[in-house]
Amino acid sequence: MKKTIIWISALIVGAILGILGISWINATADFVATVYTRLFQLLAVPTIVLAVITTFATFGSKGSGRIFGHTLTYTLLTTFTAAAVGAVLYVLVAPGNLPLGELAGNHNSQLSIVNSQLSYSDHLLSIIPNNIVKPFLEGNVLSLLMLAFAVGIGLSKLPESENKAVVVKGLLGLQDLLFLLIRGLIWMLPLGIVAFSAQLSAQVSAGIVADSIGKYVLVVLGGNVIQFFVVLPLFLLARGLNPVHVLGRMMPAVLMALFTKSSAATLPVTMESAENRLGVRKDIARFVLPICTTINMNGCAAFILVTSLFVMQNGGTPLTWSTILLWILISVISAIGNAGVPMGCFFLTLSLMSGIGAPVAILGIILPIYTIIDMVETAENVWSDSCVCAMTNHDLG
User: Fold this and answer.
1) Distance between CA atoms of 264 and 282, rounded to whole angstroms?
2) Which SS3 state, helix, strand or coil, does residue 265 take?
3) What is the pTM of this model?
């Protein structure tokens, strides 16, 4: 609650500073916002790559039997569905553009794979690397995601050995170091919010922002509500389970997730509720739920998709169905690799948008709102974990 108040206060202070129209304040805000964005870009690419690699690399140690097969199937189905619901809502609600032509122009990038002059096949070819070093030098996030996916799966298939253990431990050590640096950036987050807010309010009409951002929030939260109360219960009903009964038994975990905003912190409560309240077999609960906490990110996939579409649209990218379908796939893969990343969904979206040259300054005004979105998303993620666990237990019972 204290952090939320600080973030909202920073947003208000920044907006007031921008509205004043004082040139040196605007110049300072532009400078600070640029520095903060560059620092995020510096850490974002290696962080998302390491997150994806280490997530998939752990699959080998967790086994790949029937339980894992059911868990992965239900995870992919629910996550793809969440992203698809977000895409449909985005098209129906159609949030408007912010008048950010100047900001968008300042973030043009020759690396952009969403240039309107490219065909759909060109989009796909542009993310397939032909040089293992080039994507790192250019910061091509989409190519790096593909490489990370391949390396992570490869590590999971390697037989257990000292060499494999050394590689995995080294990657985990690098990940811990990056998390330390990220926590430092997050500690300075109010300063970044002030700068972004001042930068935007100096150029944007408040009425247009309210209308556009309001529709964006409607899409994000509306998608979460539909996934929570309609889609996931339908999955349970299809397997012959009573969604009201399952939700009632798992309510302590869902409520804790809402207030802690952390699936990992909620995991002990989720496991206790599944075993002692819902009656899930211990071997299934203790296998499925830690995996789901790592890879089952319904809310995150929807947030990454909707926010990416919103930012790209404001950057001048035509949102064709082929582009939307491509980003549904990207959002699901990114969400699966989200495990352990502080402010995961927001941070992953920022890194993806940075990689394609989209106007990431827009994320500055979304950031304070993300506090509320994060609460709802985490509750949905834990509810989805509970559903996957219940369905797996039912199938193998």
Assistant:
1) 18
2) helix
3) 0.69
